[in-house]
Design brief:
By secondary structure, the protein is mostly beta strands. It is built from five helices and 27 strands. Strand 16 (about 265) and strand 17 form a beta hairpin. One zinc ion binds near residues 195, 198, 200 and 223. Keywords: Metal-binding, Zinc, Zinc-finger.
Length: about 425
């Protein structure tokens, strides 16, 4: 049987600079080797080498784990290193190099973390919706199962639904206890039941007094309306034609530091405490992960299909960090989704690898781990028998999986093709 071998070329940038790799310069330390068994890829200073698949055998003090390559019966898998209890092991997480892909582009899915220079952005939400205008053309009877008899409109809930934010630190169940059950406790405990913001004790079903955080006593209760207004005042907003940017330092209780979620569950209902306007056409919501503050950008592709990302003033999505090139990358709306492309940027456009990647034979892959660029080439030893009867190359299972994870999109409903 043809057994996959893995050719690895490693380039390590001589400078240690926040895990960046300079794609423009050429002062690298290079090493090449082949793998035929499961291995760890390690780096000590500038030297990259493989290590048998058990870390019990000694790791030298300065070595870092770059990637784990697991050999199965047929091929290799690249897996991110699962953290061990041993905290002394330093790990450089693997990132996919977008321009290293054969197609030079990557289809964005919800939950992707993209890195441009030092800036990380997270894709919170993707919506590729049909436009609202109605077209007067006949519907084919044999395609009626596909629907399309009604007029095009967007359900209101889809446009106003809240963005799920990740900083919910308590589960919904816990929140239910904290948010509603405790109110009844406090009815007995607190003599003065008034809102800590407006000081009023008026309460009704639409605007109840709730206990949203860990604060107790006179500071414990607040009207849901008052909380919403107060949170809104902490968010700064600005917009250009295609991008709406919401920025805030933190949405937490100033006293107990509890981070508020975007929704809370009261009286059998989810209530938004932070809502963000969504466009009617196709859009992406991205969150920029920077220290100090949060930025949420809603990028509308309604009348533009290419959005440039970079440090330059003419970019639709502006990232002001110096490690970001002036015109770093772009996102293009196509009939089957949003695609990310690198624009020969200095420090590259990378996508975080959260999952196992099955390495397909003869499909090269570039991975960046800190300041090391790994070029992986899976090869099958030349085998006359298997060539005669077809090499039996499987379908690319990863892209199929990616398809499943991104929102289904029907080309025929795309307004531009109508
Ligand atoms: Zn109030
Ligand atoms: Zn509090």
């Amino acid at each position: 049987m043809g057994d996959q071998k893995l050719k690895i070329k490693a380039l390590t940038w001589s400078r240690e600079s926040s895990g960046l790799f300079d794609y423009e310069k050429s002062n690298y330390t290079q090493s090449s080797f082949k793998l035929s068994e499961s291995s760890y890829l390690l780096r000590t200073q500038e030297k990259v080498y493989s290590h048998p698949n058990d870390l019990n055998s000694s790791l030298t003090e300065n070595s870092r784990v770059l990637a784990v390559l697991i050999k199965s019966a047929k091929n290799f898998y690249l897996t991110p290193f699962k953290s061990l209890s041993d905290k002394s092991i330093t790990v450089e997480k693997p990132w996919l190099v977008v321009k290293g892909l054969k197609e030079h582009e990557y289809k964005i899915s919800e939950g992707d973390v993209i890195r441009l220079g030092k800036v990380k952005i997270k894709v919170k939400e993707i919506e590729v919706l049909r436009k609202t205008e109605q077209k007067n053309f006949p519907v084919h009877s044999k395609k009626l199962y596909n629907g399309g008899l009604g007029s095009h409109f967007l359900p209101k809930t889809e446009r106003t639904s809240p963005i799920k934010m990740d900083y919910i630190t308590r589960s919904e169940d816990e929140y239910f206890h904290q948010g509603t059950m405790k109110i009844t406790d406090r009815e007995e405990l607190c003599e003065q039941r008034s809102c800590r913001i407006c000081l009023s004790d008026d309460t009704n079903i639409l605007n109840p007094l709730i206990s949203p955080c860990y604060c107790m006593g006179t500071m414990g209760l607040v009207h849901i309306d008052c909380l919403q207004h107060w949170l809104k005042s902490k968010i700064t907003f600005n917009s250009t034609q295609n991008v709406k940017v919401y920025k805030w330092k933190s949405l937490e209780c100033e006293l107990c530091k509890f981070k508020y979620p975007s929704q809370i569950f009261i009286n059998d209902k989810n209530i938004d405490i932070i809502s963000i306007d969504k466009p009617q056409g196709p859009y992406i919501v991205i969150e920029t992960l920077t220290e100090g503050f949060n930025t949420m950008s809603v990028v509308s592709f309604d009348n533009k299909h290419i959005m440039k990302i970079g440090r330059g003033h003419d970019m639709e999505i502006r990232l002001s960090d110096i490690s970001v090139s002036r015109f770093h990358a772009q996102i293009t709306l196509k009939s089957n989704g949003f695609f990310l492309e690198d624009n020969n940027s200095k420090f590259g456009t990378l996508v975080k690898i959260h999952k196992e990647i099955s390495l397909d034979t003869d499909y090269k892959l570039q991975i960046q781990c800190g300041r090391t660029l790994l070029k992986l080439t899976p090869k099958k030893p030349w085998d006359c028998f298997s060539c005669l009867f077809g090499c039996n190359k499987g379908k690319d299972s990863d892209s199929e999986e990616m398809e499943r994870f991104s929102k289904e999109y029907n080309e025929e409903t795309f307004a531009h093709n109508l």
